[in-house]
Amino acid sequence: MQVPLSHQTDIAGFHGEATRLLAQQVPPDTVQWTAANDRDVSEAPVEDDRATIHSRAARAIIPQSFVRMSELVVLHRDPQRFDLLYRSLWRLVYEPELKHDRQDADLAHLRQMAQSVRRDIQKMRNRVMFRPLQVKGATVHAAWYEPTHLVTETVGGVLTRQERPAPWMLLTPDRCLHWDGMRLLSAPGLASGLRERDTDDAWVAAIAALPWG
């Protein structure tokens, strides 16, 4: 059974589908999770610094100790993360004593993945450096960064709550963000990277290619 998710970090979609599959007693080895690459321009949420689970039904079934960890693990770049998450969730539901087993390989792997994502978020927050550019007659502060995991929008939400000049743009290979002081727009990432030593013209040209609409 193929279970499609709307994008690479679709935590709400995963929790909703996992709840449905658990209710139908669909075992993990019959499920294949797929996540599409988000190619649209959209408005990214800024009210929180991480993905959240909104479904009450999902919260009723999914152990609370698993929720926070899964919110981090979906940001990991491992393509098998959703399979591992559902297999572990199935086991936690049907093997209640598993939550006390600190040596379990699946849960240990999930904890390692979550920790790796935490480190990447912190590293990106500390290392992002903005430079002022003139874009269409206005000053925009732009930064280029290549995160290890899919944390761009998570870090972008944090940056909107920090005191820094607006507007700014955060450019990565995964997603590009534009904060105008009110809204955080998200667009597909840049295929070609930038370097600090690149000229302002090169940076402006890269920004001009973004489909902000």
**What is the domain total for the residues?**
2
The string of secondary-structure elements, in order, is: EHEEHHHHEEHEEEH
Mean pLDDT: 87
User: What coarse outline follows from CA principal-axis ratios?
Assistant: elongated
- State the separation between the terminal residues, measured CA to CA: 37 Å
Instruction: Indicate the percent of residues in helices.
Output: 25-40%
- Rg over CA atoms: 19 Å
Structure explained in plain terms:
The protein has 213 residues and is α/β, with parallel strands linked by helices. The protein has two domains: 2-38 and 51-123, no CATH class; 126-208, no CATH class. Helix content is 39%, strand content 17%. It has seven helices and eight strands, in the order βαββααααββαβββα. It has helices at 11-23, 56-61, 64-73, 81-94, 105-127, 152-159, 200-208; strands at residues 2-5, 32-35, 42-43, 131-135, 138-144, 168-171, 175-179, 184-188. The protein has a six-stranded mixed sheet with strand order 3-8-7-6-5-4, sandwiched between helices. β6 and β7 (175-179) form a beta hairpin. α3 (64-73) packs across α5 (105-127) and α5 (105-127) packs across α6 (152-159). It is elongated, with a radius of gyration of 19 Å. It starts with a strand and ends in a 5-residue tail after the last helix.
